[in-house]
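Project standup — Tuesday

K.O.: blocked on the structure for the chain from last sprint. Re-posting the sequence here as requested.
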Amino acid sequence: MKPIIIDTDPGIDDIVALTAALFSEKLDVKLITTVGGNVGIENTTKNAIDLVTFLEKDTRVAKGFGEPLLRSAKTATQVHGNSGIGEYKFEAEPNPAILSNENAVIELRNTIMNAAEPVTLVPIGPLTNIALLFKTFPEVKANIAEVVLMGGAVEGGNATPVAEFNIYADPHAAKIVFDTDIKIVMCGLDVTRLTSVTMGDVMKVKDHGSIGKMIYEMLHYYKNAYSNEAIAIHDLCTIFYLTKPEFFTVKQAKVDVVTEGPAAGCTVTNYIDGGNVSVCVDANVKAFREEFVNVFQEINSNVMC
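H.V.: unblocked you, prediction finished:
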């Protein structure tokens, strides 16, 4: 199993990605760290703890930073609701033992340095925690296999005409991360929009246990920002890239992040041989949708065993 750490701002699409990762037979989720993004840090942390409790897992959660490095905080409550998970309510009492006493950056450092093999970082929110980790504890880079992130876009944006939300939310942090020499995989809007699922796909998992019901209820709310025929579960792309890399077409590039002005958050992508960023530029949509259905139907089957 591939050891990974997920840095996240749950967020409905984050919840879907986390659930897929926590039940994957190919991934070993060593740690979940939270960051402010889709909603504030208190809600993103609560949502992560509530989810891990609901799924009856014991994966540690560490609370990270709620504010960008230099800018004021931006949220996406218009997409995810004020709580971050639409109108869904987790009923189980959260397990307090899941939450670390340490800040996310300290937990990231300790988990990476103590890992028996290089760890893959999977940031699916703003990159504040990861940038602070690299600046505070640069020694961790030696034990990081790669960074597989959801963020950016070669063309267009969703927070502004030229910027994707996660990068726009903390462009200075994003620049620090993209400017490292670590291998990065960028799952940006170019593929996360392409690999949208339909409400018909979501209906196929609705009756598959309490997890299927959760996924349905959250995505039923989330689709209000999209449509019945194209629900972009952006963060799930990172998990499927790790488990089904054959679904994706990548091109090597150098990515520069604009930090100031009206283009702040824009990821300027220069395709060059030897670039440290593998940019996902295309994907097998049919296979992605089939995998979405299979994953959440199989989770229910495995839980029932």
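K.O.: great, moving the ticket to review. The chain has a mean pLDDT of 96. Residues 2-304 form a domain with the Inosine-uridine Nucleoside N-ribohydrolase; Chain A fold (CATH 3.90.245.10).
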